[in-house]
Amino acid sequence: MEPVPSKNSNAARKPDKLAERDARASQGNPEGSLFKSWVLPCFLIGGVAILSYVFLRILDIYTGVPIEKFLHDSPGSVFFLTNPKDVGDAIGGVAEVLIAILGLVVTVVAIVVQLAAQRYTPKLVELFISDWINISFFGFMVVASVYSLLLIYSTTSGFLPFWGSLMLLAMTTLILSLLIPYFSYVFHFLTPENIIRIIRRNANKAMKKVLETKPKKEEVRRLQNEVANAMAQISDIALSAVSQMDRSVSLMSIRSLKDVMVDHLLIKRKMPGRWFVPAKDHFPAISADFIQELYVGRNWVEMKGFLDMELIFKMAIKDMPDAVSAIANGTRIAGLYAIKLNDRQVLMDVIQIFNTFLRHAVNARNPKAIYNLFYQYRQLAEAVLSFDQELVERIAFYFKYYGQIAQSYNIPLILITASFDLAHLLKRAYELKVPNLNVLINTFLEIDDNPATQANEFDLRSVRKAQLLFASFLQSQGDTELLQRIVEDLKVEPQQRMESIRKEMMAVKDRKFWEVTDRGVDFFYMDDEQKKYLNQFYTTHIEPHFAASEPVLKVQQG
Fold first, then answer.
1. How many CB atoms are closer than 10 A to CB 484?
2. Is the distance from CB of 416 to CB of 459 less than 8 angstroms?
3. Which of 101, 346, 445, 459 is the most buried (most CB within 10 A)?
4. HEC profile for 150-194?
């Protein structure tokens, strides 16, 4: 990973000034914009039409066929059985047809583009008018219309502009022939799949251009704007799709937003330093200190993606669980790439945004969302085990924290989910022989150490089942030292409860729960091998403890 500037460096103290200066430079000259938007297209279209007219006019003058010979002797008479006056009238009619076609195409396209923009993103219009096929087709129609008007004045009673008329005929035929393919292209262009693909491609192209061309400061700022605008466009499409309950488009948008972040992660090490100076315009709702942190962490692209995902998450959490799952999965994938590329800052951002998602889900009292988030979060934590074991300690604490918070909010099954996910995480940590396994086990055994859990029989029993699952795993590994720690924690439970818990766990026969769930597995399921080790654990550790304590109880009762 590239070294980042420290907070005490001079460069780190000036991101706002650099961003403001670059933003002013990127605005450009209004006169230059006027020339580019109006004068240049006008001269280009008019110039092509006039040059075509002049060239064909000269060609007709020097190689043209006198009208009498053309009508009687030329092979062209097979196609032009007319006289100059009729040709002149026909050219005028063709000009009217071309202008009418241009108006028709503009009207239809304007309507469908506006409808699509209202549904997906207002910035779709910008994408449409910047597409070279759209520009070329409209430009060709305008050139043909202007050319036909010029050609009207070329036809006289004594001379037929043979090549000029032939060119007009060819252009008109071509335009009419292209109408159906062009409308098909427009309707395909406006499909959400294509729109999202184009936006992502534009963002990726802008990032690669920074690497390939080594642009100047002003150009870097412009390319930054392209990437940020592309991410905003994808987010707008996702928000609109969620509000309209368009499941496929929302999932596609979320995946594409994740892909933009991954694209940046893959190449960010090669980016110039100025690329990482964030613009305040891209983060209008955050403080200057946050902007400073983004500059130091070199992670403004990823953070923008995560903040956009948070907006989508808050809208989707009530009515679109699939979008919530897609956001959690996309966040996990971004974290996996951060681990692979040794980008610790982005990994910390992923953990922070997972915690933020969990807070929103708890506040919304949405157990399904928390359930899905824990699943993706736990998979990320398993990957972090090989990268930073101390960081996994914090993640384990977050599982315990949000599980207990959810229970205090009376959200069912969440503490249980956190317990079983921690049990899976501990199994993986044991297999990897991480040095801080004892700390992780402490967190795991503390998950029920609060009055709310002790007062809730179902939650308490379920947490104990998760701990017994891990105990049966340790029993299979023959690890008596760690087993003893779990035994000490279970000694506070009455014998009747422990025996009934064992009976319930042994009674689970089916791996799948009898209802449809996202994970598809019953938390309490154990195969026959695991059940054998669970019985061994009871026989070796639990039953002797209760047998030893029984005389003491009798004496106390006596």
1. 12
2. yes
3. 346
4. HHHCCCCCCCCCHHHHHHHHHHHHHHHHHHHHHHHHHHHHCCHHH
Cα 61 from Cα 41, distance rounded (Å) = 30
The pTM of this model reads: 0.82
Structure tokens belonging to residue 347? 């990994």
Q: Which tens digit of pLDDT belongs to each residue from 89-104?
A: 677 788 888 989 999 9
105-157 pLDDT tens trace: 999 999 999 999 988 888 888 889 889 999 999 999 999 998 888 887 766 55
Q: Does residue 196 sit within a domain?
A: no
* Cα Rg, the chain, nearest whole Å: 35
State the virtual CA torsion across 219, 40, 133, 194 in degrees, nearest 10. 40
Does 236 map to a domain? no
Domain membership of residue 136 (yes or no) is: yes
**d(Cα 431, Cα 395) in Å, to the nearest integer?**
18
In a domain, 252, yes or no: no
Domain range for 551 is 411-558
- Residue showing tokens 């050139």: 143
- Amino acid symbol at 45: I
Taking each helix axis as running N to C, give the angle between helix 389-408 and helix 344-363, from 0 to 180 degrees, rounded to the nearest 10.
10
